[in-house]
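Help! Submission page says 'invalid entity' but I think these are all valid:
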Amino acid sequence: MLRRLNAAAVLRVLYEAQSLTLTELVQSTAVTRATVENALAGLTEQSWVEEVAPDADGPRQVGRPAKRYRFRAEAGCVLGLDIGVHTVRAVVTDLKGEVLGVRHTAVTPGLPGAERIAAARVLGRRALRGCDRTTAEVRAVGIGTTGIVDASGKVTLSALLPDWAGTDLCAALAEPFDAPVVVGNDSKLAALGEHWKGAAAAARDVLYIHAGRGISAGMLIDAKVHAGRRGAAGEIGNLPASRWHTAPARLLGWTGEGQGDAEALFAAVRERDPRALRILEQYADDLVQGVAAMVLALDPELVVVGGGVARAGDLLLDPLRSRLDGLVLFPVEVVASTLGDRSVALGAVRLALDEVEKQLFEVASRG
Amino acid sequence: MLRRLNAAAVLRVLYEAQSLTLTELVQSTAVTRATVENALAGLTEQSWVEEVAPDADGPRQVGRPAKRYRFRAEAGCVLGLDIGVHTVRAVVTDLKGEVLGVRHTAVTPGLPGAERIAAARVLGRRALRGCDRTTAEVRAVGIGTTGIVDASGKVTLSALLPDWAGTDLCAALAEPFDAPVVVGNDSKLAALGEHWKGAAAAARDVLYIHAGRGISAGMLIDAKVHAGRRGAAGEIGNLPASRWHTAPARLLGWTGEGQGDAEALFAAVRERDPRALRILEQYADDLVQGVAAMVLALDPELVVVGGGVARAGDLLLDPLRSRLDGLVLFPVEVVASTLGDRSVALGAVRLALDEVEKQLFEVASRG
């Protein structure tokens, strides 16, 4: 027990640093030199840690340089999946979150749930192969998906995919990847992704708005996803006054179903086509109702807007900002997502990494 | 430094227990017997701790019973103030939150800010005298007030008392009570009060709705007040669609300005007076719009409704519940405040006690 505790302490210190000497490890862990040496031997044998080759280009030192050790981020990997209505996305990272591979595949809204899951499995394997990883190396799988996800990871409700309700993604994906699976709502994980690697890195209370063929919201409070009792926090779109359920259809009145048509709209807006401008402003008119309600409810530090329509950038955000300022008590900063269509999958990776950290470092509480 | 640290550790353990023996203190603090004895001597000299008289009625023991020690909750007191539009309220408690005295006084909406503050000062002193306490014994003052309160405790905006904006209650009340002052928005502190001693004791994510001559909201997330970046979380009433700014006036159309008239309305509702029933249902119709928005935004565990109109109890809550169920995704429990008009002042006391605990126990971080 104590031995595992010491090994976990050494591993955590190494995980948070680049590389450390034995002396530095003794200082950081506050245990004896012999204990650290012992832990390092065990961790090296288990391939979690390795000695770093002395830097040949480094400054010359008198005598032999002290040995350095590092956490082997390549000792495993995590898989982040974004299982959406039109697209499934996979991101593979090492254990420190360095992206190793990315894949995506188109799916249709009408695809039955079992086939959507199968598509995610296939894509996950393909993403792993693409970066020379095997399923055996996967330490955790994180999944972001459309709909309400409860605390156990089950989808309980989905407005966009009615047959998605009842889906247990933990059960469906734990077996093929032989790893723990953690699941969250896509917009909530997008908020987490943007905080981890994107537009919201400096904020702890974050409202994320997905503005695409659907509109939805997710939030972080004190840098953690606030999911709510049923996982339904952010579902302001359920209120007809938010206009979130009707806004995308009005936009699609111009663009049709395809991605290309949305680009055509943005192009027309850039050329100051009056009808296109009116449509985008109308979308901002609709969008702002629910955004204002969420901002008034939470008073966040930052609003990040992602999703397909957010690719219009300031063409959408400027009308949104000016309308929002008129509805809320204090102006709030509104920025575009910097992760784009990877925000959900990267949030899912972050969730998976939290699970890995738990496995590696929470020895004490797991007994 | 180490001596103060040990004293703080001993004091904290005693604070959280009824009374403890020397042996129990050694076990709980994990320091030596001599160190605990030393700390107890110092704390007793400073009147924070005293030896408890052996319980004469207790079970007979062989030999002399072990000495017991307790934290002297009466070693100081805290003052909680609720500075509102129509009423100022004061609650005095000992250092463990036991209520020693309560006072209130009527004020008018037109009273200038300086006089409102003076009324709070006078009432605070009166409440202290009423329970034989002096201002010198006050360890902290907590204040809940109407309007937006920023992180520094300043009122930045007030819809109901326009001249209240800019008020610095910390500065105004620290001097007369010679104690640190902490300030928060009234509905946010009501949520805290209900969690501490009222209807929300079992919930950590709580939405509190004040339904009175004004309507407002406050919330706890993970048992802590979520104030937001500007202290403006919960201000959904700013959205015209919430109908919160117009609903009370419609109610007052029946009741007039006086408290008695509200009671007359409730009495008429109890007698199934059709016009009175319609007015209360209309109020529920209005109220539910903003409540639904807040519930959809946060997905709380519990909604607590307080304020003057909440005194109608289920006559208001039943129509509110049925309408709310139709607007949200998952039914949420809606209960009446159990603290009534003391919820804000008790939340302010809780805030003040947090400040006292910081003073007493956070020796380490204060150096």
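Support: the input was valid. A stray whitespace character was the problem, and the output above is from the cleaned input. Chain B has three domains: 2-71, 76-190+343-361, 200-338.
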